[in-house]
Each structure stands twice: as C-alpha cells, then as structure tokens.
Fold:
Amino acid sequence: LNIVDNLEGSDFITPAIVDRDPVTIAIGTEGAAPVLARQIKADLEARLPSSLGALARIGKAFRHAADTLPMGRARRAFWSEYYTKTGPASMSKGEAATKAALDTLLAQHLAEAPAEGHVVFAGAGPGDPELLTLKARRALHEADVVIYDRLVSPAILELARREALMLSAGKEGFGAAMSQADINALIVKHASAGAQVLRLKGGDPAVFARLDEEIEACEAHDIAFSIIPGITAASASAAALGQSLTKRGRNTEARLVTGHDMQGYADQDWKSLARAGEVAAIYMGKRAARFIQGRLLMHGAAANTPVSLVENASLPNQRIVATTLGQLPSALAEAALTGPALTLLGLAPRDAVVPTLKQEVAQ
Ligand code: SAH
Structure:
C-alpha cells in the first residue's frame, strides 16, 4: 500500500524517476523530502536532453565495433567524446546522422590509438597510503591493469579505479608465489594488448625488487615503460627510530644490503660492515639474523653494537625491537615478528621517540 505524502501509512515509497530509457535516474529521499526529490527531478529533466535515451541506444549498438579500440584509455576516450560532444551535436540531425558520426569518430580514434600499452613501475612505499607519491597515486587512478606485490597494503590498492583489473603477483621477500618469468609474461601480455599497466611494488621499485628483469621483458617486446620511485623501507624504518641513516661524525655511508638472495644467505663485505659507527639497512634479514651476527662478530664487530628491527614500518601495527648484535637472535626469537621487518645495523631508537615505543622495545 502506498498513500501519497503519508509515510507512516505506506508500506513502500516510490522514488521520483527521470526516464530516458535505457538511461533511468531514480531520486529517493527515503520519504524525508518528496518536494526536494521533485525539484531535483525537474532540474534533471530540464538538463538532460530528451534524445539521451536514443543516444545511449545507438551507443549500445555500436559497442561491438568500438571494441576494436585497445582496451582502457583509448576506449574510454572514444566513449567520452561520443557522449559529451559528437553524440549530442549530431542527435539534432537525427539518428542516421549520429550513427554516421560514430563511424567517423571511431576511424579517427583508431588512427590515433597507441598500438602498444605502457608499463609504469611504481613504488607503493612502506605501507602507509599517505607515503605514496602523488605520481604513484595518479598512476593508480589511470591504470587499466594493476599487478601488485603482496607487500602493497590494501588501503593503497583501494585507490585504483574501480574498473581496473587487479592482479596479485603474490611475491614475498623470500621466493615467489608466482615465478618471476610468469610475472614478466603477465606484464607483457597486458601491455601488448594495449593496456596501461601499473606494476606496483612495495617500497621503492629499484630496491631489492627485481625491477631489471621486468624492464628487460618490456624491452624485449618494445613496450614503453617509466619508473616512479617510492619511499623504501630503510627510510621509513629510520624515521620510526627517529634517526638519520647518515650522520655527520658517525657514518659517511649507509648501505642497503640483503640478508638473503636467490642462492641463500647473501655474502657482504663483512669487514667494513663490522667497523664501529657503520649503518646498514638489512632487507629480508630476519631469517639470516644468526648468520649475519656470526659473520659480523667474526670480523671484529662489538657485541654491544646497536641493532634495531622495525616491523611493518609506517603502518598502525608497526613494532620496534631494539637490541644489540650480541643479543640479536634471542631478541628476535622473543619478539616473534610475523610481518615484513627491516634490520638496522648500528642504529638504536632515539630516546625521545614517542613514549609508547618504550613499551614495545624488547631489550
Ligand atoms: N622494494 C622494497 C623492498 C622489497 S624486499 C623497499 O624498497 O622497501 C622485502 C623486504 O623489505 C622485507 O623483507 C623487509 O625487510 C623490507 N620491508 C618492506 N616493507 C617493509 C615495512 N613496511 N616495514 C619493514 N620492512 C619492510
């Protein structure tokens, strides 16, 4: 039962409708303001041409033909021009003229459409969406296909266009759920089909992220690419400690090293790393902790050299474990870190770092 203007007595309410079949706009106020709904309807009725329905119908019949345009940006540009310019302008001359105008428009767009897609390799930063660069954010908004690593946080993936194809490459610090060859093939496949591909990697795409292999795959197929840097875990972790990576009078270099490579534990120039005051950011270092400790002590490093681990740097569940080289394996075992963690050799959290930190610090 519906009684006009009587919300309490009605079992259902009907929205106001602007009908340009197949385009239908319903305006509902949940019964709160029927007069307002009517005003909005009147406003839309006046604003939307009566030929809108025919415009959409002609467009629909043409969709198959327009699919010859590369998927993504090229196709969107074509439809946007039809609905905002070409279509409305030719509808006044009738439906036949509009169909002819569509043919002409498609021929123009086909001539201009890039034959190949493009790949953007972008860094997603350490996890906090606010640490995404403006450029990476724009790339997320423009991409047709987003191929992302496991380290990229869900909050960042939400920034992609709703229609974008989201593909997980499932990689972790150790090994890969999807082989590198498969990832390369996936990038090439979508870019060759004309898509704007965004290859999104945690942190910076040029730090321990196998960027070169993916670039080489693009080059082998003549696919254009560009790189957007990101904030690497070392920067975010040093910020969490309230420390600099380099400091006048302490260290004139800071090294980015990996605890692990494809062959196993990675060898480093242990002798120079063991010197007092050295700072190194060790990526993928959790499992290699005992190995690293052994090598450094063997090369003369002091057992009381500060070592800090930052887990989930920049994220709400960030944790800091402050320890020393001598205590590293036991501190790690006790902390039982489960997220990605960066080991900072030679750095301790600054005393003045937020008070809550002290509770999280395991000595
Ligand atoms: N390209 C990334 C590194 C990929 S290697 C970057 O520039 O940061 C993966 C390693 O990075 C992890 O094992 C961990 O050591 C580190 N890492 C990545 N994100 C991290 C985070 N939010 N907090 C702490 N360490 C992180």
